[in-house]
Amino acid sequence: MAIVWKSDLDTGINVIDQQHRQIVEFINNLEAANRISDSSKVKEIVDACVAYTLSHFAFEESLQEDAGYQYVKAHKRVHQLFTRKVAEYQERLNLGEDIGEELHNMLARWLVSHIKHDDADYVAAVKTNMISLIEEKETKKETKGWFARFFR
Fold this sequence. Notes:
The chain has 4 helices and no strands. The chain is mainly α and about 150 residues long. The longest helix is centred in the last third of the chain and has 41 residues, at about 100-140.
């Protein structure tokens, strides 16, 4: 079943929400490729999703580090464990195993749970840090409003 973006998945950090929506799009595209049994499309989507998600994880972790988020190491560990699990699926896929539906179900469950629980925990720290940076920059008149695009 496709993931439908709902407001309870919003973190309130626009750049993160946009990245999460892109990952949802990959997962929904995976479901569509599974429906038509297009194994080459499944592989293409999985590879693109993995590359994008790794980039997202690095970005998210850098925001947490910059904010001094106290659980950044634990959050990184969650990302590492997930990355290993997906790498196992990729290996099975590369060996010709039909894992598309199984992978889709796991990704859909994991992403929604991760956003609602793990990501929700760091939002306050990151938003506070970003607001402080915005205020500092605007006070210095360096780049009035440039950082505001990250928020709604």
